[in-house]
Every structure is written in C-alpha cells, then in structure tokens.
Amino acid sequence: MKFIKSVFKTMKDTTWPTKKEAVSDTATVISTAVMFAVFFAIVDFLVQWAVGLIA
Which residue ranges run through the membrane (predicted)? Predict the structure, then answer.
C-alpha cells in the first residue's frame, strides 16, 4: 500500500508545462536537430571532398 500512496502523492505533486512552454521547448528541440543535421552534412561533404583529393 505504501507504493500506491507514494504514486498518488507523486502524481499530485507533478506539474505539467503550459502550452507556451511546450511549444517553446519543441521549437528548441527541432531547431537544434536541424542545426546538427546541417552541420554534419557540411562536415560529411568536406570529408568526402578531402578524401577525393587524396585518392
């Protein structure tokens, strides 16, 4: 029974982000993922170009 009471207490203490916070956090995650994708695409292109010069 202690576990069940603890779960209910934890659920009461849990706070969810507001819609504004959720949208902001989602935009941050998406923009960061896009920036990393572009960065790695550029690095990949440069490495392929450099290997092409060597070979």
Answer: 29-51
Whole-angstrom distance, CA of residue 45 vs CA of residue 54: 14
- Return the H-helix or E-strand segment holding 50: helix 19-54
Residue 55, Cα to own-chain centre: how many angstroms? Answer: 37
What is the DSSP secondary-structure string of 6-40? HHHHHHHH--PPPHHHHHHHHHHHHHHHHHHHHHH
DSSP state at residue 1: -
pLDDT category at 55 given cuts 50, 70, 90 is: confident
Contact 34, 27 (CB under 8 A): no
**For tokens 């450099």, what's the residue?**
50
